[in-house]
Amino acid sequence: MNDNLLIEDKLYQILKCEDRDIINPEVFGISPTWKNDKNFEYSNLLIIKDFQLFLKNLEVTSDRGFPEISGRNPVTIKLENNRETVLYEDIMYPVIFTGAVVIAAEILKTYDIQGELPCFSYNHVIELIFQDGKLVTTIDHSKAMVRIRKNLDLRLRSLEKKRDIRCIKRFIDTSFVGDYKHPGKKREKKLKKLNEYIVKLKEITNF
């Protein structure tokens, strides 16, 4: 996933999503020539405004045509090997997404777990819970990430040890509300868990 989220002029990278996509260009009739087309690429810039999730900008690389979206025509930013990369700006298309998302900002240290940059590399790590595109709640996990970094810096844990990596991953998985192990799969189970969480949250906050 190569999507970003803008919240109050602060840019966050979307690290995890319970689904494969928060929004896919196929919604607008933009799709790859064939399944698993490696030449088809896209990235979204999303924004939250008045608790509603919107698609602000969309960048797509394809060898097919591009329709008008929300009254906006795309601008070509690159043309190479019959593949065109275009940018749609200020679409402000409401995104109807239900699920959990993890966002992060400000890399403090480039830790490495099996070739991936883990979430505890970031200073700010926040989980967002959406229901039908509406932001229900946010959970700040930044302090939990501090705890992981502190254990690594004090050599109480090591990324060279598989047992410690498993322990860190387990801690992260249990800290998050969402289930990010299998994006796009077990959708009904995830929705049931999420709805139960939202019900409990409303009971506590009288929302």
Structure write-up:
With 207 residues, the chain is α+β, with helices and mostly antiparallel strands. It has 2 domains: 72 residues, no CATH class; 107 residues, no CATH class. It is 22% helix and 35% strand. It is built from 3 helices and 10 strands. β9 and β10 form a beta hairpin. The two termini are 32 Å apart.
Summarize the SSE layout with pairings.
Layout: E1 4-7, E2 10-17, E3 41-49, E4 52-62, E5 75-80, E6 83-88, E7 93-94, E8 99-107, E9 122-131, E10 134-140, H1 142-153, H2 162-175, H3 187-205
Parallel strand pairs: 1-3
Antiparallel strand pairs: 1-2, 2-8, 3-4, 4-6, 4-7, 5-6, 8-9, 9-10
Quick structural summary:
This protein is of the alpha+beta class and 207 residues long.
- Element-level helix/strand string: EEEEEEEEEEHHH
- Our count of domains comes out at 2
Classify the helix fraction into a percent range: 10-25%
Instruction: Tell me the span between the first and last alpha carbons.
Output: 32 Å
Give the DSSP E fraction (strand runs of 2 or more residues).
Answer: 25-35%
How would the global form be characterised? globular
**Category from helices, strands and their pairing:** alpha+beta
Low-confidence stretches: none
- The count of β-strands is 10
C-alpha-based Rg, rounded: 19 Å
How many helices does DSSP assign? 3
State the major sheet: 10 strands, mixed
